[in-house]
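step: validate -> pass
step: tokenize input -> pass
step: predict -> running
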Amino acid sequence: MLRLHVMSDTTASRRGAVAVAGFVAALALVLLAMGVSLRLLGDFDMPLHIATGRRVWETGHVPRVDDFSYLHGTVRYTELASVSLFWWAYRVGGALGLQLVGGLSAAGIAAALWAQTRRFGPIAFVACALAIAGSTTFLVVRSSALSFPLLALTLLALDVHRRAAGTPRGRKALGAFVGLSFVWANTHGSVPFGLVVGAMYAAYRATCRVARGRLGGLLPAADGSDAPAAALAVTLAVAVASVNTAGPGLLLGPLRFGGQVHTLASFTEWARPTWGFYRDHEPVAALVLVAAVLSMALGRDADTGERTPALYEVGLLAMALACSATAVRLVPFAMILSSPLVARRLSRAVRPRGESAVVPLVCSACALLAPASVLVANVPLGIGFDPTHLPEGAARWAEAYHPTGNLWNSPPFGGYLAFRLYPEVRILMDGRHGTAYPIQDVLEVEASEVDPATFASLEREHDLQWAVTRALEGASDGLPLAASPDWAMVFLDDVASVYVRRDGPNAPMAGDGYRVLRHTSPPGAVLALAEHPGDAAGALAHDGELAAAQAPGSARAAFLAACGAIAARDAAAFADARARLAALAPGNPAITAVDGVWARVHSLP
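step: predict -> pass
step: emit ->
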């Protein structure tokens, strides 16, 4: 009697622990959605998605000619589903509506992974949380991020069929895979990933059918049934995925860039990840990949107890490792592919002994790692567009002064400028590499950021009259603009600067612009000029006042104002600028520097 009573109490404790674990997991999911939803909209491509959706719904047709750019190139692919979603979210809820889309997308990844792995026990909490934590940097509002939950759902659909092949439930799962392929093809061009996973699965089932169990766990006989249905589903998925604005050509993946895939590596998100990248930026992603490899080598299958992994799982791991080694932007795909493998292969090693409640509680607590990783990431929080990343100040300047003529712009800024200024202003280029611009043209514009000859060629070809360039302190963007006496800087903040030609239709604006400063002016050189200004004293004082007026919240602008005051030997202006610099950047070495120069100029006879 006593023993039965103890067992009953233990069972009750175990059930209570499971209930608590479920609550913690649900809480983690809600916190994850909230955390991602509070991220400011800072992605360079997002504004163009909104503008494209707006144009589609206002005109009633999908654009084939790019009207946002005065190059009027051919638009090869429009992500109709995602741009429509973004436009309506923005129309209904403004920036917050878009941020909520991002939060729900992130929660969708976690929910789909959890649905696939929960039968493996407490380890599912850990595997799902690590997958999200390893993808934190990429959980932003953009069409490519919508492909992450679609991949997770694709894996879930195929897993359901694998466990219920030949049953109505299994056939419905294959139908869901076909439907997901159609949605994915009209959401983002990464749909070939889903089709490759489906083709791998169908080939695996066909091979298992032929092997008839002769290769044991590598090709188990149980997975050889319903192979024709899987093959048919893949065929239908390819057919429906071909129904998109780019047609079947979209399914060629990177090959659609015209054989110049290697050129994409010059862009940050297409760069090949290095060990240093994982060590310094994505250590959790590296941990997930290592765990996936070890689980395949040392773990056991949760369902069969086989040490030998199934060939399908080996293929998924190989695909994950290929993604993790190919491009930075493919790291989330590697996380989503790896997570279920970790849960499946390590499930037997992380199971509670008897009726122990400790393991479920500890593993569920790990689920909180997902929302925690979002909050500690170096991404600003708030509601709206991120003014420290997007050229909001430059767009406001253009809306106020209405410069005319063709624009040169740093490509990452193109989407936001089109969103804010179209149709009055048409941009040169945005980030739609390969879908709206030939790759060679993209590379030429990128080169014009630093090469005067390339910039001069574009200037002649397109009769450029004004420009918006990135202006981060210390960055090497827009160098030909800064070096040319034919261009005058008329706006500057911490993100962007605006230039106009001195001899063009915007010449009156040039007269009111900066006289000696450029967005590339080194702080040390500006301070040296302030100490010994010569004939430039008035010009530097004017530039410092203009910088402070255009970017009142900028420490750099306050520093420039202080330098201008030093050049003019204006004590009141210096005191005001120094106070603002100290308030905006307490402890900044620039404060000591301007104090030292001010003291020296006042000690001169």
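step: describe -> The radius of gyration is 29 Å.
step: cleanup -> pass
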